[in-house]
Predict the 3D structure of the following.
Amino acid sequence: MSGALVWSDAVLAAQIFAADPAGTGGVLVRSRAGPVRDRWLAMMRTSLSPATVIHRLPLHIADGRLLGGLDLSATLRAGRPVAERGLLAQADGGVVQVAMAERLLSATTVHLTSAMDAGEIAIERDGMSLRLPARFGVVAFDEGLEDESAPASLRDRLAFHIDLNDFSVGDAEMFEVEPEAISAARERLAALEASDAQITAICNAAGALGIPSLRAPLLAVHVARVSAALEGNAAVTDDDIATAARLVLAPRALIFPQAQEEQTPEPPPPSEPPQDDDAGDETQQPDLDRALDEVILAAVRAALPPGVLAALREASRDRSRSRSSGKAGALQQSKKRGRPVGVQRGDLRSGARLNVIETLRAAAPWQPLRRREAIQGGAQARVLIRHEDFRLARFKHRTETTTIFVVDASGSAALHRLAEAKGAVELLLADCYVRRDQVALIAFRGNGAELLLPPTRSLARAKRSLAGLPGGGGTPLAAGIDAAALLADSIRRKGQTPTVILLTDGRANIARDGSAGRPRAEQDATASARQLRAANIAGILVDTSPRPQPLAAQFAAEMGADYLPLPHADAATLSKAVLATTQGR
């Protein structure tokens, strides 16, 4: 599909959305900020009704501002509860514009999609119970990288998914917008309905494309009605159905539709009696339905560029991983630091921070009753606060991550593996200033394990500790894992997140008690690996043997660790693999 046709479809999607923002759900625009996106947005705004207001949704908006609730200042002035409309209620009849939709908080996504489904906002908070209309369309800008995307629940409710990243300013031709034609289409829309055969064809096409959601065919039918209204048609035509399939179903396709082979119908045997006209009409109707299905699938095939489905499948696998870059520590609740995530009742003696605004909000509905009680008792006060009104701020922050390298320093190839580990540790330390991580190093050889480098960010200290490390001797694998488990436990007690990187070939020959013997040593190593998995410590086993064997992979499974065979890896390759694995958790 050429760039001109893609841009034409993007403009058509903007006009259809402007004709009925709430009915079409909205538009997901995958594009970075720039002149191309600004040009598309300008055409969309020109197509909207003059009375339509665009409301910007901040990324970290509070629930009170989003949904509404108690107007604190008005309540304190009036002495009675006064309601305040939230952003979603204010957007009734308008458009909600969401920037950086790929970073939208899950709670905000839930409130937004619930309002889109119900067409109203239910407020049950601060002693108030209200229902306010909230019918609006959404324009969501997805500015993420290849492995980042807007929430799936939001994408499912938006009819149009367009990608403007590959366009230049010269390709983004300005189209003439006719607001009068769009206004007339809004008036004709209510009288247009799709036929049962057209609805069936849309559903068949969605199934052929592997689209699991039922919202997609519903949105496609509505888009076909709006397309017919824009064209001035008296009824929904097959061309309108094909347009809806190209705009709505094609971006959601998971299976490439294959053209059906045309089969020539065989003539009936001469012995059969001729069929009457009514029977002929019944046998001809399925052929017409198949023809409409072929028209829809042909429109979808034309809209799918080569290789796009492979990229979609790869992106869907990557979405299960964490999208956070930088430090990969676990989320941890805190009373004093981090990102605010709400409030809770509590006691100030615990050292938590008092949220004054939410405390006043909790006390405001009770002021008339408390003032009457205070007057009867002879006391006077402007605002009466009680212990049960205290609201404490809640915070959440990511803990620091400490990467523990456990290096097998035994055998004839120990010097080579240690050189890789030294280079990888130095490269990871250079990245610690951005990731806020720490690195530790444990080496095991002979009869035990030794902590060579305690958790640190100091590159100079790491180089001094790594210099001159001897190698050779037996392989006390169990001792190395036990030392890593003890260090990981102490790191976790400090509120940090440990990750164990074990570099070994998995061939243990020294038991826990220092005795030689491969069977006993393998049993002890397996027991230590299971203890590490039971402690829920994330790990990666890097198989450094020249020819990776199933033994190391089985041992990684016992550890509950990712298996990474790198028989010929250098320091740069090792550090990149470790970073990719730890950040993908």
In short: The longest strand covers residues 448-456. Confidence is low (pLDDT under 50) at residues 259-288, 311-331. The chain has four domains: 1-169, 178-257+287-311, 331-398, 401-583. DSSP finds 22 helices and 18 strands in the chain.
